[in-house]
Amino acid sequence: MGTNSFLKRAGALLRIRNQLARECLAELLAVFVLILITLSGSAQMVTSSGTKGNILTAYLAGALAVMVAVYTAGGVSGAHLNPAFSLTMCLLEQFPWWKLPIFVAVQTSGAFISAGAVYALYYDAIQHYSNGTLAASGPRETASIFATYPADYLSLSNGFLDQVMGTALLIVGILAILDTRNKGVPKGLEPVAVALLVFSIEISMGSNCGCPMNPARDFGPRLFTYVAGWGAEVFRWVGGRGQGGG
Length: 246
Fold this sequence. Notes:
GO molecular function: glycerol channel activity; urea transmembrane transporter activity; water channel activity
Transmembrane segments: 24-46, 58-79, 100-122, 160-178
Pfam family, one: MIP
Number of helices: 9
Oligomer: single chain
Largest sheet: none
InterPro entries: Aquaporin-like (IPR023271), Aquaporin_3 (IPR023275), MIP (IPR000425), MIP/Aquaporin (IPR050363), MIP_CS (IPR022357)
Subcellular location: Cell membrane
């Protein structure tokens, strides 16, 4: 009885009652989970030279990561996970504009922290694969574990169109899944439907840019690679780099 009473008191003290703080922490955790699984799928593919994963398994990891992340925070923050989705909710007047910069900052921070976790998890593998050199281009580059890069043939304008179209399809698909006027997805399975949507986009539109579709997912880990030693090249449009999973 004494232990149960102590745990109840401790739980009451640790409980966060501020709704905005709860939403931000939920969003942070969900994005952390999303990026942890997504980047780990890419890391396993790259550092094993394709022997323990391929582009399909990396895409599948990214899609399933979305499912887990939505289940993680859907009941608290709505599991936006993506600044583009938060902006869409603002435009549809389903989310207050004043929360937008807060959610974007939290989403980007979660992605940055998660990239650091993946780097720690795969540190030895990255060092072994790259021979100790953190490169953003060349045959032993490892920057594509963390951020997506364009194919060698892709122009800037085509790359822009690729991302606009892929992200727009993602948003339209999510809105359709959540629209109660449509033939609804069985309650509780919405995250599964969103994961299948993400997977379908990745395997059909991933060859140009790797299909990030999420500014926080791209910028947070890319910023991490910049500060962790890959250098400013991670922000340059150059050829000779792989493409991590979405």
